[in-house]
Amino acid sequence: MNVRADRFVEYGTAEGRWVLLATVLGSGVAMLDATVVNVALPVLGTDLGADLGDLQWVLNGYMLALASLLLLGGSLGDRYGRRRVFVVGVGWFAVASALCGLAPTVEILVAARVLQGMGAALLTPGSLAILQTSFASRDRARAIGAWSGLGGIAAAVGPFLGGYLVEAVSWRAVFLLNLPLAAAVAYVALRHVPESRDPGAPSQLDLAGAVTTALGLAAVAFALIGAGEGGLSTSEALVGAGGVVALAAFVVIERRSGHPMLPPGIFASRQFTAANAVTLAMYAAIGAVFFLLVVQLQTGLGYSPIAAGAAALPVTLLLLALSARAGELAQRIGPRLPMTLGPLVAAGGLLLLTRVVPGASYVTGVLPGVVVFGLGLALTVAPLTATVLAAAPGEHAGVASGVNNAVARVAGLLAVAALPPLVGLSGADYTDAQAFTAGFRDAMLITAGLAATAGVIAWATIRRELDATHLDATDLDATDLETADTGESADLEAVRRPVIEGLHCTIEAPPLRDAGASQRP
Q1: What CATH number does the domain containing 114 carry?
Q2: Is residue 162 domain-shared with residue 285, that is, in the same domain?
Q3: Which of 14, 253, 286, 455 is most buried per CB count within 10 Å?
Q4: What is the 3-state secondary structure (H, E, C) of 239-254?
Q5: Nearest-angstrom CA–CA distance, 186 and 190
């Protein structure tokens, strides 16, 4: 089904610049939030009297809502208008951010973070979808490239900005910063962004699928986090078992639904399934590292928040500099080798991070691990995204991108929930340098194992050649994402112009058709 905007805009015109500004600011709000919250966790926890389990929920409440509702948010945009849902998401995100910034207790903060994740699920799919449906076909690749580069700048600025706000003002300013940004996004979008929708979008929404996913993930995360506080109680075990049942019910619902948000047939491709297995293992390692590293730097090594945020900056810079080249390499030699070596190199970096202990210097103790880990990610993520999109049938390219986003979110959620209990971290350990360092070292060994597992899966299951059959121009019509000047699909262009999204280090390539579920914030 063709998806058209009310009118197309051209790159380089005033209209085009306004549309680009709205989408960059919109995605930038989510990028900044993802970047700076991790940096603020130790100060936030001390101020609110939170234990480690509470801090896990500060992260997981957001990821839970986003992972569960991301595909539904894209469907809402397709049906009711992408600009409309985008603006609603911006407003929702702003209100939730205000609640986060004003939260008097950690319990209210977690609830507000859940609301923030719901807003992000409405906001984030629309950013790239608006670009895809607003710009004339010959200008889309250029617009996406500009959006990618400017988004990378936001990711690089985030750690410095977050650390500065925590030190100079308060951790609350990390959330309140979103309010003026959201107001600017909503103003620009309402005045300058054309509306677009999919006339062929299903008349019914998969609410049952969204609810069972959210309940299942929440219950499993609750049980895993609870296991770190005095062991798994009978009630927590029952809740966890109920979560597994809910996730099984989700699978049944999707198989029987006439309008599933996750078409079961998409997993008929072994390549697609394998690439998502690599994503699950690799992004579990990523989520755990960026949760624990900034805490270890502050608790174990005495770094200030701004110094802790800046310490991981080489990862973002390496992604910005090398991801496009890794995508080009995968185009030439196939994705199997980069997707195997990348996780193995990242695993080496994680082993080096076991040297981040009290008294270690940044140059000899922190920087080597961060640089090697960043090199591994840069070699992995662009080929991984390209493989996911190339393996999916053309009519499900957008859903495939959304599924891969959701898998990455779920991986991070489960890692943040499960890893601290596995390494014996709980309670107030995040304020105890000796206790946290011991747990951190064990956690880096486990994450190194996860990254190495991703490499082994890639070697065993990913084909040597990148299957571009679904990206062929014969599968597209005039309104799909094909560049008029070069004849190359925007998916292939996106391999060369990846998007860096905050500390999650997500590389996103735009889908061909269903743009509603395409972005990883």
Answers
A1: 1.20.1250.20
A2: no
A3: 286
A4: HHHHHHHHHHHHHHHH
A5: 6
Mean pLDDT of 331-360: 94
pLDDT for the residue numbered 512: 34
Question: Is 252 within a domain?
Answer: no
Which of 232, 450, 458, 233 shows the shortest CA–CA distance to 334?
458
- Res 506 pLDDT > 90: no
The one-letter amino acid code at 156 reads A
Whether 510 shows a pLDDT value over 70: the answer reads: no
Tell me the CB-side half-sphere exposure of residue 363, using CA atoms within 13 A. Answer: 0
Domain boundaries, position 171: 1-198
Residue with token string 């539904």: 72
SS (H, E, C) 452-472: HHHHHHHHHHCCCCCCCHHHC
Contact 453, 352 (CB under 8 A): no
Tell which residue, 81, 80, 42, has the closest CA to residue 58: 42
Q: Which parts of 149-224 are beta strand (E)?
A: 196-197
DSSP, res 4:
E
Query: How far is residue 160's CA from residue 230's CA, in Å, rounded to a whole number?
Result: 36
**Residues 400, 520 contacting (CB under 8 angstroms):** no
Q: What is the pLDDT of residues 446-457, one digit of tens each?
A: 999 999 999 999
Query: Which contiguous run of DSSP H or E holds residue 317?
Result: helix 313-333
Could you count the other beta carbons within 10 Å of the beta carbon of residue 431?
16
In single-letter form, the type of residue at position 237 comes to A
Per-residue exposure over 122-156, b if at least 16 CB sit within 10 Å of its own CB, e if not: bbbbbbbbbbbbbbebebbbbbbbbbbebbbebbb
Is residue 191 assigned to a domain? yes
Q: Alpha-carbon distance 285 to 419, whole Å?
A: 10
Amino acid at 481: L
Total-model pTM: 0.81
Identify the residue with better confidence: 230 or 502.
230
Tens of pLDDT, residues 290-320:
899 999 999 999 999 989 988 988 988 888 8
Instruction: Indicate whether 493 pLDDT > 50.
Output: no
Total of domains in the chain:
2
**Mean pLDDT on 276-286:** 95
Find the angle CA(125)-CA(518)-CA(260) to the nearest 5 degrees: 90
- 100 within some domain: yes
Structure tokens belonging to residue 449: 């194992």
| 217 located within any domain | no
The CA distance from 35 to 353, in Å, is 20
Q: Read off the tokens for 426.
A: 């709980």
pLDDT at 484 over 50: no
Buried b / exposed e along 49-87 (16+ C-beta atoms within 10 A): ebbbbbbbbbbbbbbbbbbbbbbbbbbbbbbebbbbbbb
Mean per-residue pLDDT for 63-85? 85
Q: Is 411 exposed, middle or buried (0-12, 13-18, 19+ CB in 10 A)?
A: buried
